[in-house]
């Protein structure tokens, strides 16, 4: 069956929390309070459904977000404008089935209308070569490394230029057309729509 990517619903937060904390060392653990904070504030918080069951989730936010991750701060100290993927989790039984690519396609479709770049990190401890390969195949490149003071983990810091953004911003500015496929997932955060033109693709 097809993969459906949609906004998270409040009653699904317990399931999302369980998915996160069963994901293994590649994903930092969450507690219910922090997940609730993401639900209330994150610009992008979507889940994937496959065969009627929850298959994963992705949380993201713009550079202006009030987010305390040291990885997020690393990007903000170096880049003026980007969309940050804080975490993506795919249920173990669904890995390799296209859920991760569906999430990244959806997140990019959202971000490229509003931001010039996508940012994320991959932890370098352990066997994360497949994860790095996945990101590389999707167009991300390493722009540095960061040692997280809060965890002691080293991360490869990855970015991807969004080539559509300069044209979209020059053409529409801050007034994107009001059509369903453009409607931002988290409509409570209208400040995220205020963008400025920065950067172009090579």
From TrEMBL:
Residues 3-164 form the N-acetyltransferase domain. InterPro entries: Acyl_CoA_acyltransferase, GNAT_dom, UCP028520. Gene3D superfamilies: 3.40.630.30. This is GNAT family N-acetyltransferase. It comes from Lysobacter niastensis. The lineage of its organism: Bacteria, Pseudomonadati, Pseudomonadota, Gammaproteobacteria, Lysobacterales.
């Amino acid at each position: 069956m097809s993969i459906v990517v949609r906004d998270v619903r409040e009653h699904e937060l317990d399931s999302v929390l369980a998915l996160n904390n069963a994901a293994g060392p590649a994903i930092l653990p969450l507690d219910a309070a922090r997940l609730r904070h993401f639900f209330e504030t994150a610009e992008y918080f979507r889940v994937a459904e496959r065969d009627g069951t929850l298959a994963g989730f992705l949380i993201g936010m713009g550079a202006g977000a009030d987010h305390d991750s040291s990885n997020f701060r690393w990007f903000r100290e170096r880049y003026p404008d980007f969309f940050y993927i804080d975490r993506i989790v795919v249920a173990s039984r669904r890995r390799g089935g296209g859920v991760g690519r569906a999430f990244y396609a959806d997140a990019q479709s959202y971000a490229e209308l509003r931001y010039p770049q996508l940012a994320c990190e991959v932890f370098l401890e352990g066997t994360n070569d497949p994860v790095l390969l996945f990101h590389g195949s999707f167009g991300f490149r390493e722009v540095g490394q960061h040692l997280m003071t809060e965890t002691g983990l080293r991360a490869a810091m990855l970015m991807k230029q969004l080539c559509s953004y300069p044209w979209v911003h020059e053409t529409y500015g801050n007034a994107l057309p009001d059509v369903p496929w453009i409607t931002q997932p988290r409509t409570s955060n209208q400040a995220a729509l205020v963008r400025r033109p920065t950067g172009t693709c090579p």
